[in-house]
């Protein structure tokens, strides 16, 4: 008899959490497990990547789904009224599960929905580096501290990296016995279109344009590199609330010829494989999936020495990664080193072996 699993998240827009969930679902053995996926809003560019054997359920009808999908104040108000830690009881799932997993980890409605689901075992993912999030996001800090007791109701807290687990245990030692580490599952490389990008030496950055990713600093790095007469171009994949701000900054520094904003793209490998170096100027991470995607694409990466980065560096092959000091000049000098051959494409990352280790841990947990 198949074990019944419920996994819950918010939507299937392009993001690190959503992409890793797709990778996990694509690796589940459906001969052993029956999987329901709860989406608060059944939308997003990654929706069609969900395996057909996954049963999608949603508490939200299509009228409300369209309304709360919009990026405006009204939609946020409606979303907060409909879905919060008090309204979950109106959407209660009466099905009995063997395992219920809160995959998003931070959305209160889902936290309490899973807590009140009938399941033998309940797990919650921790995708966030708590130290970094609490330092840079006051709203997150208030919400997180006020609701820290939610972890009492879960059997295990699945941290996506060692640093995520260590930081969480340091801050909240009362849950130390519940934390385990399971890295994110990674998809193998998929090339759909043979993209031809311009540029002698091509840099690429991928991520949401939010405070955490610190794209303003990346633009300043590019300004210094161009002033040093490096023959380079930077391609940026992603969107977010600071998109216009970043675009304006590029124009102010007259970098339009050197920095190309590509917006949201579902298959990043078409672009990643064409580039010589992946770069991030992020403020903090837990286990940055995009660095693994870069390794899978045979593209070396450079990143500042912040929380979460070294977890990927540990498993990166020789000549594939540079971790530099967390300041603009160090990042600039690191890119120059990469440009001069300190890292290159002469490495091999075994994604199948990596996934095998991750999935063994996941199956050990759910069995």
Supply the key terms.
single chain; 367 residues; alpha/beta; Rossmann fold; 2 domains; seven-stranded parallel sheet; six-stranded parallel sheet; 14 helices; 13 strands; 35% helix; globular
- What separation lies between the terminal Cα atoms? 13 Å
Q: How many strands?
A: 13
CATH topological fold name of the largest domain: Rossmann fold
Strand percentage lies at 15-25%
Query: CATH-wise, what's the superfamily of the largest domain?
Result: Glycogen Phosphorylase B
Radius of gyration: 21 Å
Number of H- or I-type helical stretches: 14
CATH class of the largest domain: Alpha Beta
CATH architecture descriptor name of the largest domain? 3-Layer(aba) Sandwich
Overall pLDDT score: 90
SS content category: alpha/beta
- Which percent bin holds the helix content? 25-40%
Written as H for each helix and E for each strand, in order along the chain, the element string is EHEEHHEHEHHEHEEHEHEHEHEHEHH
The major sheet is characterized as: 7 strands, parallel
- In the predicted model, the low-confidence regions spanning at least 5 consecutive residues are none
Which word captures the global form? globular
- Count of discrete structural domains: 2
Neighbour order of strands in the largest sheet: 3-2-1-4-5-6-7
């Amino acid at each position: 008899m198949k074990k019944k699993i419920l996994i819950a998240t918010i939507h299937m827009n392009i993001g690190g959490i959503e992409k890793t969930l797709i990778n996990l679902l694509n690796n589940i053995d459906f001969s052993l497990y029956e999987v329901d996926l709860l989406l608060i809003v059944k939308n997003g560019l990654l929706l069609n990547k969900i395996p057909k054997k996954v049963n999608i359920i949603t508490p939200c009808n299509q009228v409300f789904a369209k309304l709360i999908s919009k990026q405006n104040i009204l939609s946020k108000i409606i979303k907060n009224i409909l879905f919060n830690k008090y309204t979950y009881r109106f959407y209660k799932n009466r099905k009995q599960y063997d395992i219920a997993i809160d995959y998003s980890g931070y959305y209160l409605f889902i936290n309490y929905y899973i807590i009140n689901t009938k399941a033998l075992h309940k797990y919650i993912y921790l995708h966030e580096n708590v130290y970094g999030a609490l330092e840079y996001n006051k709203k997150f800090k208030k919400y997180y501290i006020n609701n820290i007791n939610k972890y009492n109701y879960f059997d295990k807290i699945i941290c996506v990296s060692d640093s995520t687990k260590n930081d969480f245990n340091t801050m909240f030692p009362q849950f130390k016995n519940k934390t385990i580490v399971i890295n994110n599952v990674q998809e193998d490389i998929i090339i759909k279109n043979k993209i031809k990008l311009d540029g002698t030496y091509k840099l690429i950055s991928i991520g949401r344009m939010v405070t955490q990713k610190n794209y303003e600093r990346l633009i300043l790095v590019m300004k210094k590199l161009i002033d040093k007469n490096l023959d380079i171009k930077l391609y940026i994949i992603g969107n977010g609330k600071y998109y216009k701000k970043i675009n304006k900054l590029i124009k102010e520094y007259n970098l339009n010829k050197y920095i190309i904003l590509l917006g949201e793209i579902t298959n990043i490998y078409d672009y990643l494989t064409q580039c010589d170096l992946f770069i991030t100027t992020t403020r903090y991470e837990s286990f940055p999936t995009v660095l693994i995607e870069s390794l899978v694409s045979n593209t070396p990466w450079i990143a500042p020495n912040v929380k979460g980065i070294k977890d990927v560096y540990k498993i990166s092959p020789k000549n594939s990664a540079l971790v530099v000091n967390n300041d603009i000049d160090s990042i600039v000098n690191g890119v120059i080193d990469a440009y001069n051959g300190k890292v290159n494409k002469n490495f091999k990352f075994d994604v199948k072996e990596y996934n095998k280790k991750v999935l063994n841990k996941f199956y050990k947990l759910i069995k």
